[in-house]
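User: Assemble these into one structure.

Assistant: Restating your components, then the assembled model:
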Amino acid sequence: MNIGSIWDLIILSPMINILVVVSKFLFHNLGLSIIAFTIVIRAALYPISRKQMVSTKKMQDMQPKLAELQKKYARDRQKLAQEQMALYKTAGISPLGCVVPMIIQLPIWMALYQAIMRVLATGPEQLLSLSRHLYSSWNQVFALVPLNSHFLWINLGQADPYFILPILVGATMWVQQKMTTPTYADPQQQSQTQMMLWMMPLLFMIMSVTFASGLALYWLISNVISVVMQYFISGWGPLGTMFQKKQPANNKVPAKK
Amino acid sequence: MKITARKAIIGIIALVVIAALLAGCTSKSTARGWAGVTKIDNTLVFTTIAGKIYSVDSATGATLGSPVQLTVTSSGGFLSCGSSTSPISVYSSPIVSQDLVIFPGYNTGRIYAYPLVDGKLSSARRWAFPQDTSLNSNIVGGLALDTGKIYFSTANGMVYALDAATGAEVWSPRNLNEQIWSAPAVSGNTIYITTFGKKLHALSTTDGSEKWSFETKGAMSASPIVDNGIVYVGDYDRHIYAVDANTGKELWIFPGSNSDTEIPKNWFWTAPIISGSDVFASCLDGKVYIVDKTTGKFINSVDVQNAIAAAPALVNGTLVVATIDLQNTKSKVFAIDTTNFASRQLTSFNEGIDARVFVDGNSIYIHTTSDNFYSINIQSGATQKISLTSS
């Protein structure tokens, strides 16, 4: 048995079958299934996601102190590293705290993405392939497929012809990014963060224009959940200050020299 | 390196352009197609995945003339790779009407007819339907030919009737409002057609009006077959049905409530085959289920281990079945004696088989997922790759 078969057996096939069965209780609607399934998966991963968000927040809060250290030990890299580690230790966070949870979640995201693509079964080969993932012991899954791919104004197997979903995907991702992006006084750092702030939403928006809408729907719901979670962990963050009157410059993270 | 706001904007634009190109070029799902082999007089017709139709002398195996190119040029929509040419995908075996080879284009939503002159296919198309446009829907199922008329359906649920000689519409298309991926079956003055909407419809060949419809437990993409006034069909919910062809009344269902039966474990992807007093239903679970055609009672099953996605063929009391493995990389061809259900493996390939098996005399013709054609001797299993060349 190769890695692909193991992946299918323990992750992909269970997700596909659950996604199909969930549709039975949601008016045989694949769109509602995708929404419900995304919410359930995100809820199951909540402890990991929360840990990641909290770590990210702490890292952001530490940026002024880190900037000061960089300024102080600009010519002594070894000392800088030591002081940074000491700072992390004092604050009780691990620099890997926001990376490890993300890595743990990646296979789940990948499987969810693949499961949605398989269930959409947009062509004959894809539908034939779907048959191989269905559990013969789950009698109900056979009567349910192929699922109805129409949801609201869209065919989930095709791109949104009106570009509404891609715009929503891009907008929600931007909101989520903005909530966690600090403002730097240094123009160089500010340019870098601005680039990141716009890059990901634009990438996903473009992908949503060309990929099946089912996938865009999943991205949209996932983004909305992230925004809600982020709000309860760190509030609106920099997004909130955008809508307030211009704040004094001392709100900004000091510039690196 | 200092990153200025201007550089950042240029970087964003560059990344967006790259992403747009990548997304636009890779997001299209591949429609490979699985066209089976067809024969007209002494000429075999091979439709390739690569988008060519070859005519081959059935006696010598020599390619006759040049292949007809089946390509479609897409103008390129938003964020696409621009104008591009791709093969026309065909998911059924072409049919033959007089001197015409007729087939549906999956990705073009059109029907095409090319003449065969002295065994050679002419690239001068006789007709296409619609002539200049598209039906704006994929055509997955094949064509049914009956008394000079072609019947077919589009994936969006429309049923059409055309004059085979001219491609002219015989009656206005009928909308069944259900997704259709199967070829119709025609018997007498009735068209039988299965849908994803769990319905078997019976339509009049005269005007397409509905005579009756029969509800099944699962969706269907397998075509029905009609034998002695009974319609047989298999569904995704793993049942075989026998329905009265005149009234649409259920005669039996397999598996029924009897406990002395085997329960199929996957979809019936292809049409059942009738031999003698038995129905042979090939299943994606790797078994051929044999049931009594009058009562629907389970008789036996033949285990061929892998999924049967290719429509089997019956010749002189032998059922030829091709299997395909999970990764589309291996397949086997079996001959099953329909009287004693004994099976023997004829050959195997390191390629998948999902196109209809075609039998001509003692030869079986196979089209693989790697776009190769083979002929197999039904007695010895001797296998020969068919070389398709432009002469």
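Residues 3-251 of chain A form one domain.
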